[in-house]
Amino acid sequence: MRRLNQVFDIYLILFFSLVIGLTVAFLFEMDVHIVYIIPAILLMVIIYWVSVYGTIQYFGLYLFLFVLLTKAITVVLIDTPPISDFKMMIDAAKAFAVGDYGFKDNGYFQAWAYQSGFVVYQGLIIKVFGYHLILMKLINCLWIALTTLFIYKITKRLLNDVAARAAGLLYAVYIPFFLYAPVLTNQHISTMLYYLGLYFIVKEDSPGYKNWIMAGVALALGNVMRPIGIIWLAAIGLWAVFDCFSTRRRHHHGVRLKGFAMCLVIYLVVFYGISLLFIRTGITDTGLKNNNPYWKFVVGFNEDTNGLYSFEDVKMLKDQPINQALLDKERALIRKRLSIPPNRMAMLMVNKVGSMWGKYELGVFTFPHMLGKDIKRLGRDFDALHTSLLNLEKMIYLLMIGLVVYGLVIQFIHGHQSKYKIIYYVLTLYTGIHFLIEVSPRYKYVVMGLVFMLAGNGIRYINHRTSR
């Protein structure tokens, strides 16, 4: 069983080593000046120093307040208008708030009815407080701050104080989260709920099944907001199964597996209960269901876009009802795309990793009103300023991933087995599934907290070696 567990170690070492290689290649391709490495290194030195020596009381509270304040300032300064799917969902939320459920007849919601969960969440806020975009964005800041706090607490429980402070600080200063804070995406609240669920899971040593029940509720609500709960559940299930074969825990064999069973039951009851409620109240006709399950695979195997969103593929959905004919057409297209030679398929997989993990974040969602508009800020063209920010982010990101690989290698050499492995399982499943489905730089949002836990582990090992 230990050898089987090592598969996850090796996979993640190889995966993040590939990410480093692809990121470096991208920086050379974009001719990014080496000078950006200086502020990146300075930031990492500060984070290391605070992580090792910042033994102040209530660190988690100060971290929470820092993130809340800095993200709130960001959303006030950046007047981001909703575009694309985000506009469609906020418009549907406004309709829901006044009792109009007509949005369910929109082709978008007929195909992806599961998006109705986030619509209802936004609609309830509008119903209670009125429609104020700034309020919605400030609530985003609250979810990001809470997520940061949970990451700190989870890492502290799984590893130690140094790793926890490092993970929390890395998450707090990660530039893309500043850029996404004013975007009305379901990723903010769903990510918070998934990490809340994980927090309850790592607290499961307390007597009884209370924390498992709370984890099931949190994961189910996260799935209502953004349907990737199956990955978290599968990872927790793997963790429980491996635990059954752990020699360290033979004296209470299967306790964690029973806890997982309880979590799974609660998850199913809560999620499908809400789905049924949506049907009964007329919000949707099919509940929180994906009525076009092949679409993500259609796009994911598109060689021309390297698995990114395809405007060409979208044309097949235009004025096309979600019926068996469309599903058959999508299946045929998937089979065709799977029939390419193995060398091209391998290159597609590598390119998909680069598209999601090695390239710039998508500023179009944050600055649709500013990019390409010949706007000046601080005496410079805004597009140039934006590119400079992305270049700095990529240098910082490269150093962070370097810490991840360092920690993974040391952990593998030492062969430690612990609760910490649950991070490996979630990351392996999440990165693995994206070899098959559509990718986007912003899709890594939900697991970046786990990535920073691994980076925090790298800082922990550096501190351990330098303090000998």
UniProtKB/TrEMBL annotation:
Membrane topology according to the record: Multi-pass membrane protein
Position of the signal peptide: none
Biological processes, Gene Ontology terms: lipopolysaccharide biosynthetic process
Keyword Chaperone: no
Transmembrane segments: 7-28, 34-52, 59-78, 129-152, 164-183, 224-245, 257-279, 395-413, 420-437, 443-462
InterPro entries, per the entry: LipidA_mod_glycosyltrf_83, RgtA/B/C-like
Gene Ontology CC entries for this record: plasma membrane
Domain Glycosyltransferase RgtA/B/C/D-like: 122-268
Primary residence: membrane
Keywords per UniProt: Cell membrane, Glycosyltransferase, Membrane, Transferase, Transmembrane, Transmembrane helix
One annotated GO molecular function: pentosyltransferase activity
Record localization: Cell membrane
Top-rank taxon, per record: Bacteria
Name of protein: Glycosyltransferase family 39 protein
Natural source organism: Vallitalea pronyensis
